[in-house]
Each structure stands twice: as C-alpha cells, then as structure tokens.
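Weekly puzzle thread! Below is a chain. First person to post its structure in token form gets bragging rights.
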Amino acid sequence: MSRYKFPALSGPSWFGRSSPGGAATLPRRFAAFLMDCLEIYRQRRALEALDERMLKDIGLTRCDVEAEISRPYWR
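Winning reply:
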C-alpha cells in the first residue's frame, strides 16, 4: 500500500525519494533534450544550405525545406 492517499502520487517518485539517483534524472533528461534540440537546429541549418541541385538529388523541393525549417525545434 502506498503511503500516499492519491493514486497519481503512488507511482514513480518525482523527487527521487524511492529510487536511488532519481533526483539526478531530471537534469540528465533536460540536458539530453537540449542536446537533441541543438542537433535538430544543426541539421536544419545544413538542409537550408543545400542548393537546388542537391535538394533534387534527395527528392526535396525548396518549399519542403522551408516548411521543415519553420517548424519549432521541439517537434
């Protein structure tokens, strides 16, 4: 039986009380998220730098590239 009254609070601890090193997972997850966003930003800038001939080789149009670049980095 959980020491909490609410079932939503009886699952994994958000504050690292029930699992060793649990408190460190939030900073790690945030750092991983930031690294993923940085990688997406880098890839989109590289895609933007391609000329029309290179885009045609990979089957994209300038319109496709503009649509991808305009998306937020977290999507």
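Puzzle host: Confirmed. Bonus trivia for everyone else. The chain has a mean pLDDT of 80.
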